[in-house]
Amino acid sequence: MAAQLIDGRALADEFRTQTAIRAGELRDSGKPAKLDAILVDSGDNGARVYAENQARTCEKLGIQYRLHELAEGSSQAAIESKVAGLNLDDSVHAIMVHMPLPEGVDEHDIKMMLDPDKDVEGVNPANIGNVVYGKSMRAPCTALATLKLIESTGVGLKGKRCVVVGASVVVGRPIAVLLMQREATVISCNKFTEGLGDLCRSADVLIPAAGVAGLITADMVKEGALVVDVGVNRVVDPETGKKRTTGDVVFDEVCGVAGWVSPVPGGVGPMTVAVLLHNVVELAEN
User: Fold this and answer.
1) Regarding predicted confidence, which is higher, 280 or 242?
2) Do 92 and 145 fall within a single domain?
């Protein structure tokens, strides 16, 4: 069988169209949606490229974007001071901090400082806790994007066995919680789990999020399963010698077994950005 492609780019386009309409309504009311982002120069050009792309996307959707740049080597205290200032500014309603932060800065402490009502990425422990208690849907954006991709297939989750490979705080764990809220039977495991292949083969819905290129091969996938690949890895292409982005799934192999599969790139990634901007508008509306 040939798997149906879960097109994250197409779904993200639909999401952005809805977001642009709502952003336009806010702008017409005199209260435009705004996103304030903090970027600490850490020598990671990828973070800067992401910030620049984010600015362009916000402009297209009618969302105001303000980038607050801090110098390389900025201290924990300097970053915390910037977050505190944005928390107290009544004109600010959506805050995010670009990662990674400089060596020696405690990312957890920075996330804890974010005002939960302005935390657009849903990474503050208070927001993650509210997701666990079913009091909020402002889950970390990648987790929510994964759920949206699953829902787009029309496959129901109630009673389905879902295996999540990877248990990071802002990806694997919140994905598992969101699935449980939809009455799925969830198994959380990781790349070190004994019998990983057997567990994966038992899954109606398989969500690799371990960050290990090639971890999931065709013999680890149940025929007809829905596979959402959350892994993002940079590997060297043996044919060209150049780096390329790939997921945790051996895509070509798994396409011959699965019923649905998301590609990397073009799957969870675009939808994660779309969810973030949707959250900006929602925070502005509130």
Assistant:
1) 280
2) no
**pLDDT (0 to 100) of residue 73:** 87
Per DSSP, the three-state class of 4 is strand
> What was the pLDDT predicted at 286?
86
For residues 146 and 226, the answer to whether their CB atoms sit within 8 Å is: no
Residue 251 belongs to domain with CATH number: 3.40.50.720
Task: Judge whether 254 and 3 are in contact, CB under 8 Å.
Answer: yes
E strand segments, the chain: 4-5, 34-40, 64-70, 95-97, 161-165, 185-189, 205-208, 226-227, 233-236, 243-246, 260-261
Q: What domain count does the chain have?
A: 2
Q: Are residues 58 and 154 in the same domain?
A: no
Residue 128, domain member (yes or no): no
* 75-104 tens-digit pLDDT: 999 999 999 999 999 999 999 999 888 889
Could you give the strand order of the β-sheet that contains 34-40, starting from the edge strand earlier in sequence? Answer: 64-70, 34-40, 95-97
Domain that holds residue 180: 139-268
Integer CA distances (angstroms), 24 to 32, 205, 282, in order: 8, 37, 13
Tokens matching residue 162 = 């879902």
